[in-house]
Amino acid sequence: MKQPDADANPPVDGSELIRFDHVSKRFGSNTVLDNLDFSVDAGKHVTLIGPSGSGKTTILRLLMTLLKPDEGTITVAGDQLFPASEKEVREVRKKIGMVFQQFNLFPNMKVLRNITEAPVTVLGLSKDEAEQRARELLELVGLADKCDAYPTQLSGGQQQRVAIARALAMRPQVLLLDEVTSALDPELVAGVLDVLRDIARTTDITMLCVTHEMNFARDISDQVLMFDSGHVIESGPPEKIFGDPEHERTREFLGAVL
Ligand SMILES: Nc1ncnc2c1ncn2[C@@H]1O[C@H](COP(=O)(O)OP(=O)(O)OP(=O)(O)O)[C@@H](O)[C@H]1O
Ligand SMILES: [Mg+2]
User: Fold this and answer.
1) Which residues share a beta bridge with 18?
2) Which residues does the UniProt record annotate as the domain ABC transporter (predicted)?
3) What digits encode the pLDDT tens for the residues 76-112?
4) Residues within 6 Å of ligand 1 by CB
5) Which residue, by CA, sits nearest to atom 18 of ligand 1?
6) Ordered strands of the 30-41 beta sheet
7) Per the omega criterion (within 30 degrees of 0), is the bond before 172 cis?
8) Domain range for residue 30?
9) pTM above 0.85, yes or no
10) Which of 20, 23, 27 to mutate for ligand 1's pocket (most ligand atoms within 8 Å of CB)?
11) Terminal CA-to-CA distance of the chain, rounded, Å?
12) Around Cβ 85, how many Cβ atoms within 10 Å?
């Protein structure tokens, strides 16, 4: 299946969708990203792993244009993020969906409206079109019966699944996921990961995922990037990174988390 109502101009599978070229990012004297290079091809599922504080969220925030790099260039579907006019930035942001650890649903809106709000106001969809899309996505995340609930009436796992549906409703070319299960009670984690596995399996959306769930990473990833001290220190298919890592630092890290 294509992503429900996939973008009118989807990137060709296998072409480069995201590229970081010599990107550095500093906070004061703290160099978080140091001359970082990596790319993600369209349609692929790439997972970033690495120790706390190593800069994984910073990478996603740069992609969301919430931060600016100090050096280097970042491109998404061929468009450079910095420098870019406000209009160009708005266009690039439409290509990117993000789900955070904290789901931040609009508390005063029912589930359906949480999902239709941005497609109507940002993409200009009619209310009917947006609602139809929202219902399909709620089906996909297993919450077809929750259209009329308010976020506080849902469990954390259900809220996170709504947040995933809300991100997909914008028909992004790439979905960024930042430790989306780490704020959940343990018994709710599996349901959310199952939904993401389904999305990975049944849609053609590109995924860039930060996770501490190593089994999940192993299942869905085409490529795993081990990240430390501002660089990708090792990358490869999950069998290689988890089964036979080359770098001592990777072995150490996996030894601590597995
Ligand atoms: N806005 C900010 N101002 C100052 N320092 C920041 C800011 N955002 C992040 N940092 C610092 O940058 C470094 C990387 O942070 P980042 O959130 O990217 O790490 P992470 O790999 O996502 O860690 P975790 O696994 O704990 O989520 C940390 O040392 C952090 O303190
Ligand atoms: Mg983080």
Assistant:
1) 40, 76
2) 18-254
3) 999 999 888 999 998 999 999 999 988 899 999 999 9
4) 27, 30, 32, 52-58
5) 55
6) 30-41, 16-27, 71-76, 79-80
7) no
8) 16-256
9) yes
10) 27
11) 33
12) 8
- Whether residue 159 is contained in a domain is answered as yes
Total domain count, the chain: 1
Mutate to test the pocket of ligand 1, among 23, 36, 48, 56 (most ligand atoms within 8 A of CB): 56
220 sits in which H/E element? helix 214-220
Specify whether the CB–CB gap between 33 and 230 falls below 8 A: yes
CB 243 within 8 A of CB 77: no
CATH of the domain at 166: 3.40.50.300
Whether residue 8 lies inside any domain: the answer is no
Quote the crossing angle between the two packed helices 111-121 and 127-140, to the nearest 10°: 130
Q: Would you tell me how many other CB atoms lie within 10 Å of the CB of residue 185?
A: 10
For the cut 50, the answer to whether the pLDDT of residue 8 exceeds it is no
The answer to the question of residue 95 being in a domain is yes
Q: How far apart are CA 244 and CA 174, in angstroms?
A: 29
CA–CA separation, 127 vs 116, rounded Å?
Answer: 7
Cα distance between residue 188 and residue 169, in whole Å:
23
Which ligand is located closest to the Cα atom of residue 55?
1
User: What is the DSSP track for 236-253?
Assistant: E-HHHHHHS--SHHHHHH
Q: Is the dihedral of CA 121, 3, 135, 177 positive or negative?
A: negative
